[in-house]
């Protein structure tokens, strides 16, 4: 058990002596990425601030290998741990290179003059996050995405063992989010850097993290690899989601379904139904969907958004009772929409449903769909 | 046509900074000579050099050595101290319109010095320079304490300055009361001093201020590394290994000491502390303490030499208070800074 690189023992954190979260046990190996998730105000930032020593622990300890972080001097701690914070900074008239060079603080002498080694470290850090071309630009003129990357470069230039980031991707667009996280992943692989961060994007957290810590209430709710945390229904419980759904498997969110007697039956499959389901939800029309295999791309979305889904077991031909069921559903609905254009050998039953609807004059096609 | 200054790193920057420091230094020397030369009796430059070399006429000798020279040196040292104090306060509060005068620190010193003076004069005790500085320092710390308390409750930039000005007014009002009801012929002197003036400064005063300002300035320069980290915000500074608690205390003590020294000898001097660091930042196009600390000192020196010259000569033989002149030149700079800031960050 002692081969963990970074671990906490009975860590209790809080403000002004009032405990917020008790007995936190974190155990991660060198080069792993730990992500803290949990609802707003649950205490993710409090935990991170306690780890980096900006808040004193109320109980327990934080260990980095054999040393206790709280006992390190400020300078020693700065050499082992660097941070990217949510706090927005306004350094006046500083170029990006100068901001990154601040990362060398624990290594420079009395007046903070950079040596050749320091200059190289700064340059390397800027190359790592691919910001060399920003070196001479003034920091305050950058976009949020660029600023965040420069602050990451600063943290890397500090040459730490552990990098702590508080919601580093919050202000970034999707491209920068992916770039930012892939730099982190690269650093853990190449430099054996250990990363501890908090993220709001659950889909990204699930993909990048080796370990997840779920923060909710007075104790840590769960700690473990993402596959043990992102179990069906868990996120809904963790965040107390009451409207809409989160799909742990795909990381996809859906708005709440429109309830009522289904007015439309959607024949879909293979992803073709999803845009129609969502549009019906937006228009506020209750609907049912079918016949979908349990493992169809459309199924999770249909289940989240529709009143009723007529399903067939995965990898099985459609059985006759299922077809009967679907026909009864069509009888109850006023209209039918079919999003399939090709029907494969195994999907003949859905084609029959289409003809069945056509015979009864319920089938809507083309633009007429939305006029009704 | 826009003047295009080189922005590339390395040598170009080094040359630029060297040239700028050279120019500032030359301007200080130039104004030093000008201040000694101009006055009710004008002394030619050549005569100044002669006198300093030990020759020269006796008539000039007294004026130069005993009156104008110490006064000009005081303007250099105290002006420099004000520039530095302003730079430290602006860094400390992350606020470009902070300075010892607007934050009420000068006025706090003034009040403390006035009380000490009146009490000591009543008992017929002569007051030493060191005692004056100590009283001014105590007053500065008191005002600073209030400002810090208020800044904890009201973190907004504008409120900080407003509360500082209020503290300044209270202190000034009490000082006026004391001065009005004090009963001594020396009060005339006190009145002049309480408006701000470099007049009547002796060589022994200068010696004390050199020691105090050199010590405080030297310590400030040694702190330029943590100051630069602090410019990145408190949390980042802490994460880079700055002990924020002791750093903040040191900054408060140093800026109060510098401003107290000025008030003790020259009374409150307005707007130098705000304007000079702003001008220097724009001139050097950097906020790096390593450059800004000497630059603010030199800039403050030039500013005060220039303003004292005008205060002395504009309506001679009547002398204006130094604060009147520094305000006329300083306030436009402050307004300009506020406008620029609004454009940069419309919040």
UniProtKB/TrEMBL annotation, chain A:
Molecular function in Gene Ontology: ATP binding
The protein's matches in CDD domains, at most eight in alphabetical order, are given as: ABC_Iron-Siderophores_B12_Hemin (cd03214)
Q: Which residues form the ABC transporter domain?
A: 6-242
Keywords from UniProt, A to Z, are: ATP-binding, Nucleotide-binding, Translocase, Transport
InterPro entries per record? AAA+_ATPase, ABC_transporter-like_ATP-bd, P-loop_NTPase
UniProt-listed Pfam families: ABC_tran
Protein name as catalogued? ABC transporter ATP-binding protein
From TrEMBL, chain B:
Q: Does the keyword Transmembrane helix apply?
A: yes
Main location group? membrane
A Pfam family found in this protein is FecCD
Q: Which InterPro entries match?
A: ABC_BtuC-like (IPR037294), ABC_transptr_permease_BtuC (IPR000522)
* Recorded coiled-coil stretches: none
Q: Where in the cell is it found?
A: Cell membrane
The membrane topology noted for this protein in its Swiss-Prot or TrEMBL record is: Multi-pass membrane protein
Spans through the membrane: 15-36, 69-89, 101-123, 130-154, 160-182, 203-223, 249-277, 289-314, 320-339
Q: What's the family? A: Belongs to the binding-protein-dependent transport system permease family. FecCD subfamily.
- Entry keywords, A to Z: Cell membrane, Membrane, Transmembrane, Transmembrane helix, Transport
Q: Which protein, by its recorded name, is this?
A: Iron ABC transporter permease
Source organism's superkingdom? Bacteria
């Amino acid at each position: 058990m002692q081969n963990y690189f970074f671990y906490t023992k009975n860590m209790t954190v809080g403000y002004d002596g009032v405990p917020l979260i008790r007995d936190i046990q974190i155990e991660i190996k060198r080069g792993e990425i730990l992500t803290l998730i949990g609802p707003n105000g649950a205490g993710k930032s409090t935990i991170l601030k306690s780890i980096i020593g900006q808040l004193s622990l109320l109980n327990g300890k934080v260990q980095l290998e054999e040393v206790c972080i709280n006992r390190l001097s400020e300078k020693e701690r700065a050499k082992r741990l660097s941070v990217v914070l949510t706090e927005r900074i306004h350094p006046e008239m500083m170029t990006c290179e100068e901001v990154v060079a601040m990362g060398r603080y624990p290594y420079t002498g009395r007046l903070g003059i950079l040596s050749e080694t320091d200059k190289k470290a700064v340059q390397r850090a800027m190359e790592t996050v691919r910001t060399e071309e920003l070196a001479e630009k003034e920091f305050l003129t950058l976009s949020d995405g660029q600023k965040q990357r420069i602050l990451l470069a600063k943290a890397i230039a500090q040459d730490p063992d552990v990098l702590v980031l508080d919601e580093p991707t919050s202000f970034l667009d999707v491209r920068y989010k992916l770039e930012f996280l892939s730099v982190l992943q690269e650093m853990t692989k190449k430099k054996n850097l250990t990363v501890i961060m908090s993220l709001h994007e659950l889909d990204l957290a699930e993909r990048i993290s080796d370990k997840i810590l779920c923060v909710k209430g007075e104790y840590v709710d769960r700690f473990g690899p993402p596959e043990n945390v992102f179990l069906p229904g868990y996120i809904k419980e963790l965040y107390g989601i009451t409207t809409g759904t989160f799909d742990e498997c795909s990381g996809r969110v859906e708005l709440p379904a429109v309830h009522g007697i289904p007015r439309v039956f959607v024949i879909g499959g293979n992803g073709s139904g999803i845009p129609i389901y969502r549009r019906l939800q937006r228009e506020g029309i209750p609907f049912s969907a079918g016949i979908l295999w349990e493992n169809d791309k459309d199924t999770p979305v249909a289940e989240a958004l529709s009143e009723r889904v007529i399903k067939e077991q995965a990898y099985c031909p459609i059985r006759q009772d299922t077809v009967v069921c679907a026909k009864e559903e069509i009888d109850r609905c006023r209209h039918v929409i079919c999003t399939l254009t090709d029907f494969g050998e195994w999907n003949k039953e859905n084609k029959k449903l289409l003809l069945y609807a056509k015979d009864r004059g319920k089938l809507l096609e083309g633009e007429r769909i939305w006029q009704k | 046509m826009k003047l295009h200054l080189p922005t590339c790193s390395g040598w170009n920057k080094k040359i630029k900074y060297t040239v700028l420091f050279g120019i500032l230094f030359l301007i200080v020397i130039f104004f030093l000579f000008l201040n000694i030369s101009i006055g009710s009796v004008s002394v030619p430059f050549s005569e100044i050099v002669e006198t300093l070399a030990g020759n020269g006429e006796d008539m000039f000798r007294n004026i130069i050595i005993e009156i104008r020279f110490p006064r000009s040196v005081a303007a250099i040292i105290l002006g420099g101290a004000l520039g530095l104090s302003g730079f430290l306060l602006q860094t400390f509060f992350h606020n470009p319109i902070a300075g010892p005068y607007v934050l009420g620190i000068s006025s706090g010193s003034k009040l403390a010095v006035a009380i000490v003076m009146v009490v000591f004069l009543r008992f017929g005790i002569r007051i030493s320079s060191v005692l004056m500085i100590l009283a001014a320092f105590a007053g500065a710390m008191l005002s600073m304490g209030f400002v810090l308390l208020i800044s904890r409750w009201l973190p907004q930039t504008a409120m900080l300055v407003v509360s500082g000005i209020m503290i300044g007014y209270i202190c000034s009002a009490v000082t006026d009361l004391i001065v009005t009801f004090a009963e001594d012929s020396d009060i005339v002197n006190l009145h002049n001093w309480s408006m701000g003036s470099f007049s009547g400064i002796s060589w022994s005063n200068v010696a004390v201020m050199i020691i105090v300002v050199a010590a405080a300035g030297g310590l400030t320069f040694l702190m330029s590394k943590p100051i630069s980290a602090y410019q990145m915000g408190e949390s980042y500074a802490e994460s880079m290994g700055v002990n924020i608690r002791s750093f903040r205390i040191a900054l408060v003590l140093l800026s109060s000491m510098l401003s107290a020294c000025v008030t003790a000898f020259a009374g409150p001097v307005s707007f130098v502390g705000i304007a000079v660091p702003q001008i220097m930042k724009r001139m050097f196009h950097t906020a790096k303490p390593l450059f800004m600390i000497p630059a603010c000192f030199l800039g403050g020196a030039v500013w005060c030499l220039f303003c004292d010259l005008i205060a002395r000569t504009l309506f001679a033989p009547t002398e204006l208070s130094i604060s009147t002149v520094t305000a006329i030149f300083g306030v436009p700079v402050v307004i300009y800074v506020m406008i620029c800031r609004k454009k940069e960050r419309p919040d």
